[in-house]
Structures
1.
Amino acid sequence: MKAIKKEYKYIEIFKLRYGLFDGFFSLVLVFLAILIIPIILSLPIFLPIKNTIQDFQITDPTFSSIIDREIRSADTNIVLINIEDISNIQLAFTIQTLNQFSPKAIGINTIIKNGENPLSDTILAETLHNTKNIILSTRIIKNTQTNYNNIRSSSPIFLKDKNQGFSNLLINQDKKHFTVRQFQTRYINNYDTLLPFAVKLAQIVDSTKVKELYQRNNETETINWSDFKLTYSFDAMDVVDNPEYYGELVKNKIVLLGAFDPRKDDITYILQKRYFTPLNKHYSGRAFPDMYELEIHANIISMILHNNYFYTVPIYLTNLVAVILCFLNMLIFFYIRKRAEDWYELFSVILFVIQSLLLLFLTIVFFVFFKTELNLNLALLACAISSPIYEVYIKTMKPFIIRIYHIYIIKE
Amino acid sequence: MKFFSIDNIITSFIIITILVYFSEYFNIDFLDPIQNIIQDTDASDIVFSKIRDKEKVPYDTNIIIVNIGEYNRAEIADEIEIINKYHPKVVGIDAFFLEPKTEELDIPLINAIFKIKNLVLVSKIDSLDEKSGKYKTLIQSHSQFTAYGVCGFANFISDDEQLFRTVKKFSPKEYVNDSIQYAFAVVVSNIYNPKSTQKFLKRNNETEIINYKRFLNKYRVLDVNDIIEKQDSLGFIHNKIVLLGYLGPNIKTITNRDAFFTPMNDHYIGRTFPDMYGVLIHANIISMILEEDYINAMPTWLNNLLTFIICYFTMALFSYMRVKLKSLYEIFSILIIVFQLVFILFICLFLLHLFNFWMELKAVLFVLIIAEIVSESYHGSIKPIVIDAYNKFIRKTK
């Protein structure tokens, strides 16, 4: 007797329920494929590529258009004073001079160490103690050996009942490779909750605005770069030597003291002191950093006091959009294949191009006009690979699975 | 189903057309960040950055690099006086002395460089005439200094200024009006070893890819005070190349004035800080010339031919699979593309790492990425639609 060769000929049936099943399984495959990408990029040789992708934001070039629109109303109530290379006694004199003109708040963005002269330290400590509206900064230092980072503060003599705020703009990220786009609203270290330097200063000026910040309940906030314009910045010793002139400029203002000099264009200095921000003329790739830390803090303070935040669409919502969009794509593919199979391939390419451009366009429009970060990267990626994954599923995987099912399980 | 078929020719033609005109049609501002990254990156950078073992590279004892730091002219003159005592074969100064300053500063320097047997100073070429391909301006140090030596241009000619000082290539010679000017490193090498340099120049390439191998730790380096402090024990300078240039206020202070991005950067893509001083780039070029260890680039015509062959072969393979492996076509086509991408990248890195042979990969990678889409669009949609329309037209006319 001849053995009967088992064969099962798969015939595709275009019914809606099958379309829905196919759409669902293709959707699962799409998101499985997306999960593989970070695994590949975790290889050490691809680390620079991973950093570049993480640091990349399509909205960066749009910041200059926001600033052009809003620069007239930019905040000029923040003054930056350069205290680079000055001694503790000179710092004390600077603060004493400032105090005569009643600034709203003073922030010192450096770690103050003991000087060579104990008397100078005592004078500075006394000056700081007598200045009520002053914030000192701390730095969070990465500790590779434990789970907790170290906190570096000024010398204890200067800290007596003084408020501090952490001034790191990038925590656990190297400023050489990453752009400052957001700031962390709080940092929890070994059961202590630390607040940022800029937030502490804003709190002195207007505590209700800071309450509103924390009512938003975000771990990080995107920095709105449009609010601050660097109008006043000068050297500390100029203030001490000409108090009558400079005093009027700091009256009722927020004064930030730190090591920076915007007049210096030496690349050495720029690389040490500045950070990459979205305002960099070179949006991506090789560039020199463009903004001093003190300026960035000023931007953050201004944003808080003006309540000028970006709204970030919750991640679950953007993920849901990605899933819905991808599933709709699958249904569209099913429909096109049913009605006009000849047009399917061309249509899927056109659909991808239109969807990508539309998503990018929407991202930028919402960002520029509605100050909303859509973060549609996942949706974009899902749409990009939905067509090839769908085809792999429909033309290869599904017939194979059904054939196996009929031949070996049902045994037709 | 033939290897040479009209379908394969058409699909290959479509891909090549997209490749050629893509950047024009998709020149959209908000895609600039992506374009910048693509332009700035070469897959071969991975070889310099990650694959080559920099520790195994031997010291180049032909070259001594001297840091001039923040020295003024008189202090540089003091350094040169000490160096001269040891009779180096050639002294190259990677610094400009454009205008005369005070006599206290200039006279010592003139006296010092007067005694140098073979002096090379830097110049700069500027104002390229796009039509003739010649430069119009040559900027040199003041004649009171250049009278005692020869000049070589220090520009690192990049074929795209948007690369923001990433130095991958240099130009061995350029025309300034009607005179030939040679690169600073070439002039120095020529004095030191004319035979090697002439062999290098005989390659007659417009631009040469720099075969980067060494950071500062693979050269003998003398910091700002070392010349003065060790002036009695600098015998190793005798008959060598001495390059004077800026390496920061001192070499322990990591600074990046006059510094550039190179493929040796640990981060071969994206945001990072410059990694190499200009004088060190010159040293790498000189080492390359003296060691006769060049990188040979695939000629453009061969690159284009290879791109076309890979494109056509891929289309033919897809056509074959569409007929012979119908049910597995979709998954196989993707796997083949991934395999080709990885394979070609591997070959490129392998050839560069072991044979110093450089291939321009961007066109090939682009072709492979869009190959499947174009093939599917053509066979799945364009061809049936066109045939259907043609048949309808024929029926109507009949």
2.
Amino acid sequence: MKDKIKKVLVANRGEIAIRILRTCRELRLQTVAVYSEIDRVAAHLGYADEAFLIGPAAARKSYLNGTKIIEVAREAGADAIHPGYGFLSENPDFADAVARAGLIFVGPSGEQIRRIGDKTSARRIAKDAGVPIVPGTVEPLATDSEAAVTAEKIGYPVLLKAAGGGGGKGMRLVRSAGELPSALRGSRSEALSAFGDGRVYIEKYIERPRHVEIQVLADSHGNVVHLGERECTIQRRHQKVIEESPSVIVNDALRRKMTDAAIALVKASGYQNAGTVEFIVDQERNFYFLEVNARLQVEHPVTELRTGIDLVREQLKIARGEPLGFRQEEIEFRGHAIEARICAEDPENNFYPDTGRIALLRGPGGFGVREDRGVEEGDDVSAFYDPLMSKLIVWGQTREDALARMGRALGNYEIFGIRNNLRLCQWVIEHPDFRAGEFSTDFLSEKFQPGMLDRSSSDILTVAAITALTHHTVLPTQSTRENGVERSKWKMKIADTFQ
Amino acid sequence: MREYTLTSGKETLKVSVDGSGRFLVNGRTIEAALSSGAKGIDRVQIGNRTYALYCRKREEFTYDVWINHAVIRVTVEDIRARLLGELGKQAASSSGPQMVRAPMPGLVVSIEARQGEIVQQGQGLLILEAMKMENEIRSPLAGRIEKVGVSDRATVEKGQVLMVVVPVEVKHPTDNDERT
């Protein structure tokens, strides 16, 4: 079975490509990297045996160009393609095309992706498997009385949502029965004008939710195991910033229920390879199924640091048709892990992505520190791809240790030349509510304002000013025609102003 | 010492520099040693504290300084440089006789070009004393001085025409130098 995969093409870039290539090298597999025109000297190329150009900078012409990638895989003689995360990783057509080309897709099959990736299909599978889902109607409300009855049954507060579209249009939060009639009227009319469809449905409103997900591995022999939970509640506009394991809000009883539910769901769906089952947890420790991510996730190192299990290696083993090498009882969980996503974004300027050359990059190290980085000093960060530059993951024996270690690691991290969110991550790690484990997905939107990160003492400002001024007044030497006139006495007084 | 006004966000600093490493910042004397290292990283030493920074010019008078985990944007108000720079930009874009105008009010302390003289682009035309400094007004183009509009020790207003220069192709300016 080991011979089934001898050469892997990694259909991705940046930190995840490097991470996958590392494990492939350890398993003595030959490796192929792909790159777009703007990535000709990208960091990930140095980790593969061969590299192929697949297209121009634009993702849809390169990293999303499944046809070209499969063509390259065949040309290179690869027998497997690992899609990483994002890009084509959850594209069922691509997974099918890889299989049709006689190659192995390191992940679930196209059919499995379709089944579990479709939200209504996934909710149905979950419901049938006895997994709690966010209570609500699946069909739009027919009458106002149906709305009232359903709302009573679910329990207030409830959310009215437009059936015809999203983006918050037609959404109404209803806290009590008294508010329902006017909320229905408003919701319907707003939905009608926004989508031409005034139908609304009703869902339980989960207050101050937390996002907790369960990592699973399923082989082709019917074995399914979980590798614990990850708490990913600290988000900004649905983009995760800080992740950790274990979750502060998950006690043993809740963990048992959630992991049982995740495994039941995976077994019922026939899903194979690595996947993550996402749940919403409310402040009373009720949990509700959200969706399944049919891929390896960005924050997977958090799980790896706690379990000592290399998830990419397990993915490759499962892809080869091998059974899992361990039983659930053999999986040990040690200590606490936290990850910070270091991005080329300016939190003080509405998280606007920054581009430019990285003048200096010095990552931290030491005991319990892991860095999965996609860029190197001297690289140019462009606007074509995700602004994630690096993942900083720390492990500690306790959450307190891990927090201290993350604070230290972030403090030691030096990035010059590109605006980044290091200080924002530090701000989160030091925030008393975060340290107390008391937060919901509203944490950043409620508590963070630009200007909060400004710890510039007057000394720092003075030093910055002096430096800028020195750069400004150090002028290029200019030769002026002397015309036989002594000009030296003017040069000291005269500003070199003609530019 | 030359004084500049620097702004960063809501902060304003008046900084004077004499090129010796001594700075006067909002009245406070600071001795700073600056060294530029590899990769463009500067090191600033003040007293027994050392800072590593990276300074990148954003625009004409704006710099981004990376220090600690912050990026501080500093704008240098070099008014004279701005005005005199504008003078050059205006003239360079048009053809025909060029009016060389005073970029700020001042006192003419020296006239360096005579009527009929051929001058090169960038050549000094006169010295205007303004804002406690002596400012050399230079020719924005190569040409012939058609008219000198002011006399020595004249007080001029902003925008006042100092000289008129007519574009001429200059090959060997020394041959045409009529000054002795």
